[in-house]
Amino acid sequence: MFKKILIANRGEIALRIIRTCREMGVKTVAVYSTADRDSLHVRFADEAVCIGPPASRLSYLNIQNIISAAEVTGADAIHPGYGFLSENAEFSQICADYGIKFIGATAAQINSMGDKATAKATMRTAGVPVIPGSVGLLDSVAQGKELAAEMGYPVILKATAGGGGRGMRIVTKEDEFEKAWNDARQESGAAFGNDGLYLEKFVEEPRHIEIQIIGDQFGNVSHLSERDCSIQRRHQKLVEETPSPIITPELREKMGDAAVKGARAIAYEGAGTVEFLVDKHGNFFFMEMNTRIQVEHPITEEVTDFDLIKEQIKVAAGEPVSGKNYTPKLFAMECRINAEDPGNGFRPSPGKITNLHFPGGHGIRIDSHVYSGYTIPPNYDSMIAKLIVSGQSREEVITRMKRALQEFVIEGIKTTIPFHIKLMDDAGFRSGNFTTKFLEGFDFSDL
């Protein structure tokens, strides 16, 4: 087992990792930017090293400074959390070159899944259902139009290096294709430095379902069932739940088997998720693989009684996974509490928290790094807390979640709490009858 782990991240995930390390008897090193000197992960770690100014590229994305911090403190492993460098193949390889264990996927594994066109080809070869579309990247508008005509509209153009909905365009008819092509390439090139596009059949009325997997260094892979992440705006998740209201035991088994098959195809090591779109007929298609821990991992932990961070660390230290697959014993839901104004297009709302009260009671978990008097910097992601609720049924979870949200007090800034309270009362949401487009028709006027 490792003696000291450096956490190359910030906020609630850094604090989450510190807690598990402390339970395991492993020392921790926090790294922080000057904007985060008063953050809880800095206070709770055994050691802390400042790695630069507020800008991410000069601090949390600064590989040289992070490696230097690991060497100075004698850390023998680095946990990247999610975001920042967690899916950076170069960082994973540099850690290996310096004899520091990267708690996550290898560079080769990250590269195999990081490019979406390559990932699709890998999964197709492994026998995992893939959305019909181009084999590899498109060479030209003419090739794209020809393939779209064969598949039938609507289709979707996607940036191979994309994320967060950038570099994506839905095309409903041929005369829209060329403009969508140009717009998607321009946006992708500007955002990612890569304007490569591929084409897929557009899945109508989709649900976004991900399967949590974990693999070890010996070729063993287990899955921990699904999470439904369909409540999202601009392709960014706001609410996640498990089990999904639409997944039957038979479909869960098929999707779980497909996810394990895909992970084994790249000899996957660590925690990750295989993401699928499920259509209204119950057909599922591979979308992408995230080679890291996910924001929403706590709901899986709550329904399986399984510490995913601890398992990540054990796998990285060379211990095997059980090979057993897990199914939910309870129901759980997570609401992302963001420092945003939901009544104003979810505009970021950084600033000082003047008053804070966390909800409590049976089945309530809060993962957060904020406190009363804490100033939320404008430099990073706006998520400030995750409210996780578990119960014996989905109805009980929704009722408990609404009660917890009503108890949750954050003053001094705008948050997504009012939106979540309203969502818990929405008939469509309560029925489980929704798709990834659900919020396009949601009324935000009174928030």
Q: Brief overview, please?
A:
The chain has 447 residues and is an alpha+beta fold. 33% of the residues lie in helices and 26% in strands.
Which keywords apply here?
Rossmann fold; 3 domains; five-stranded parallel sheet; alpha+beta; Dna Ligase, domain 1; eight-stranded antiparallel sheet; globular; D-amino Acid Aminotransferase, Chain A, domain 1
How does this structure look, described?
The protein has 14 helices and 22 strands. With 447 residues, it is of the alpha+beta class. It folds into three domains: 4-103, Rossmann fold, CATH 3.40.50.20; 132-201, Dna Ligase, domain 1; 207-441, ATP-grasp fold, B domain (D-amino Acid Aminotransferase, Chain A, domain 1). α4 runs antiparallel to α5. Keywords: ATP-binding, Biotin, Fatty acid biosynthesis, Fatty acid metabolism, Ligase, Lipid biosynthesis, Lipid metabolism, Magnesium, Metal-binding, Nucleotide-binding. Residues 120-317 form the ATP-grasp domain.
Largest sheet report: 8 strands, antiparallel
Q: Per DSSP, what share of the residues sits in E-state strands of 2 or more residues?
A: 25-35%
Major sheet strand order = 13-12-9-10-11-14-21-19
Averaged pLDDT: 95
Function: This protein is a component of the acetyl coenzyme A carboxylase complex; first, biotin carboxylase catalyzes the carboxylation of the carrier protein and then the transcarboxylase transfers the carboxyl group to form malonyl-CoA.
Organism: Arundinibacter roseus
InterPro entries: ACC_Biotin_Carboxylase, Acetyl_CoA_COase_biotin_COase, ATP-grasp, BC-like_N, Biotin_carboxylation_dom, Biotin_COase_C, CPAse_ATP-bd, PreATP-grasp_dom_sf
Domain Biotin carboxylation: 1-444
